[in-house]
Each structure stands twice: as C-alpha cells, then as structure tokens.
Specification:
CATH class of one domain: Alpha Beta
Order of helices and strands: HHHHHHHHEHEEHEHEEEEEHEEH
Number of strands: 11
Number of helices: 13
Shape: globular
Strand order of the largest sheet: 7-6-5-10-11
Strand content: 15-25%
Structural class: alpha+beta
Radius of gyration: 22 Å
Helix content: 25-40%
Distance between the termini: 29 Å
C-alpha cells in the first residue's frame, strides 16, 4: 500500500506534462540556463582579462576566449587545472569543465535531492544511520545546553548552507573566554555544532590539525551503483579543515585498490609526494578500510534511489567505524578527478552515465531549443 501515493503522484505528473503550463515552465528553465551561460561568460571573461593584464605566465587572452566559447572553462582551469594553454583542441575536448558539469546537474538532479543535500541538518537526519557523531543546532539550544555540549566535546561550528569550508571554525571549551558572546554568535548565525571526531591514526598523522577526509564520487540510480572516482583530502598549514580553498592538498585514490599512486596537488598546481607540513609519504599511501568506505557509499546511495550523482565525504574513525561527514549532490570533477593527472574524464562520464542512467549526459550541455525536455530538473 505504501506505493499507492507514489503511483498517484506519478499519474498526476504525467497528466501535468501534457499541459501548456508545463511547456511554459520548460521554456522558462531553458531561458534561465541561457542567462546562466551568458553571466558565466561575462564573469569568466572579466577575470581572465584582469589576469592576462597582470602578465599571465602562459597562453593568451585570445586563446582563452576560444577555450571559454567551446568548453566554458574558467581562467583557473585554463591556466592551472587542465593547462589548456598547451593542449590542442582534441586534448581539450577530453576534459569536462566545472560549468559543464553544473549544467548537467541543474537538468537532472531532482528538487528533493538538492534540498536534502544543501541543508546540512536535513542531510544529517536523512542519512542518520551513517552519522555517529553528536550534533546540535545552536539556535535550538539554551545557553546551558550549548555550554554543556561544548564542554563534552571539542566542536566544529558550520554555517548551514556554507560551501568550500567557508565560515567553519573549531571551539575548544578550555579556550572560551566569554561563553555568552560565543553562544550569541553561534545562535544568531544559526550555526550547526558537530562533535569533533578523530580519524584513524594513518589518516590523522598526515595532518593532525584537520579531519582529513575521503571524497568518493558515485553514480547511482535504483540498485545501480558505481564509484566514478575518489580522492584523499588533507588539511595544510595548521588549518582545521581539509578544503583546497583553505590551502589543503588532495590526491586521487585508485578506486580498485584504495591506494594513492600519484602525487598530491594543491589549488596552485604544486605537487607533493609527501605532505608539505608533516613529510608523511602520500604516494604509496593505502586508505584504511577502503572496502568498508565503498560499501558505506553504496548503502547511503540507496537511501535516495533517484540520487544519481553524489560526492560523499567520509572518514574512517579510530574504532574502525566509517563516519559520513557531508554529501554533495553536485560534486566537482575539475579538482581531484581530472587536475592531478591532467587526464580528462568526459568519455568515461558518458559511458558510466549511459550504463547507470540510460542517457547521454553530454547532450545536456548543448544549448539548443530542441532540448526543452532536458530541463525537468530545473523545475
């Protein structure tokens, strides 16, 4: 009987798709995508003009504009991420840019998935079986509850809708000087408070100040599942977060073996065979509990059968449990999956998506009016 509401909803949706209103909404979605494309072009061109005006190390502004027109790449992707400046057109076409991936995500990721993954508390509640740490919302705590929680654990405070590690900070009870001011700050900013967890020793020793995590990018639909790629993310410079935007480094993981076979890289294309701070070897490092990590991702993906894409951030803990830290419904392909090896994954993406989803996702990138039917995810 539980399937009856779903069947009724699907029947109503099928009827709605035959209406003029539905056609108008698809037209609106197509116009929105066109506006996004034009705004990207304006912003990316301005940034590149500024950088080339300062004396960019390689390439030319004219060549960048051609790469932007064909592949929607940012200046960072052109200069550092994929080094487009030294590639011919065939080699460039092997990569898929961040903007192209975002275009795909906008068209096929459902509203339910977006809403769940964008809201950190909604995510923690939906995927509770894979979250072992305690957490609280600061604006749902009294002053006494707030202080009790912080005194029981070191705490990481996060904005609910933050990205790229922005706005995250660590709270240690023995360092708090004004409890009322701290509580007011966390409450008024509606911060999420999470118990600090410790990674297993091999992961922790890479950079002890941060929780170093494993990002696993998966494609799934129904009972179909594959690990598309994975990377180890490590903090650097004493930062409490491992995000590359905060100076972190990352290294691709071989999905078949769980081993790191190539040097790590940072946002500026510097390469590291050992961690720049701790000198712990990165090349040859084997991710502990790799099979359990993959199985955790598989089970988590089954929570939302229409998930399609996900970037799971996980960490094996000291007691062997696998902790799900966060999830991303629109994971970047530009960083850990293409930049370290300077190898494009566009064809691999096409083949994997056809196997899992049954569609050619590269068709979703094309800005043609004939693809109205590809815009349902934006409604």
């Amino acid at each position: 009987m539980a399937t009856q509401p779903v069947q009724n909803r699907n029947a109503l949706y099928h009827i709605f798709k035959q209406t003029a209103l539905y056609e108008k909404m698809l037209r609106w979605a197509w116009l929105q995508e066109t506006r996004i494309r034009e705004e990207e072009k304006r912003i990316f061109t301005r940034e590149a003009r500024e950088q080339f005006g300062k004396g960019a190390p390689h390439g030319s502004f004219a060549d960048y504009k051609e790469a932007l027109r064909r592949h929607r790449v940012t200046y960072q992707e052109y200069m550092y991420g994929y080094e487009y400046w030294k590639l011919d057109e065939a080699a460039r076409d092997a990569f898929i840019s961040r903007s192209e991936m975002q275009c795909i995500y906008r068209k096929i990721v459902t509203r339910e998935v977006r809403q769940t993954f964008r809201n950190k508390t909604a995510f923690l509640e939906r995927f509770a079986p894979f979250v072992h740490r305690e957490w609280r919302m600061a604006d749902r705590c009294s002053m006494e509850e707030f202080r009790s929680f912080v005194e029981a654990h070191d705490v990481i405070a996060k904005p609910l809708d933050g990205t790229c590690g922005e706005g995250i900070f660590k709270i240690c009870a023995n360092e708090v000087q004004d409890w009322e001011a701290l509580y007011a700050r966390c409450r008024d900013q509606h911060l999420l408070l999470e118990e600090c967890v410790r990674a297993c020793e091999p992961i922790e020793q890479l950079h002890p100040a941060s929780l170093n995590t494993i990002r696993v990018v998966t494609l799934s639909q129904g009972d179909k599942f594959t690990v598309f790629g994975a990377l180890l993310r490590m903090g650097a410079g004493g930062s409490v977060i491992d995000n590359t935007h905060a100076g972190g480094v990352f290294a691709p993981i071989n999905p078949e073996t769980g081993c790191i076979d190539t040097p790590a890289i940072d946002a500026h294309n510097h390469r590291y065979e050992c961690h720049p701070d701790t000198d712990v070897p990165i090349v040859g490092f084997t991710i502990p509990y790799w099979e359990q990590i993959v199985e955790t991702c598989r089970k988590a993906a089954q929570v939302m059968p229409d998930l399609r894409f996900a970037g799971w951030d996980l960490c094996p803990l000291a007691d062997g449990r696998i902790e799900l830290i966060e999830g991303n419904h629109a994971p970047d392909f530009d960083g850990g999956l293409q930049a370290p090896l300077k190898v494009g994954v566009k064809q691999k993406l096409k083949e994997s998506a056809e196997e899992i989803f049954g569609i050619n996702v590269l068709e979703l990138i094309k800005p043609t009016s004939q693809t109205y039917n590809h815009y349902e995810g934006m409604l």
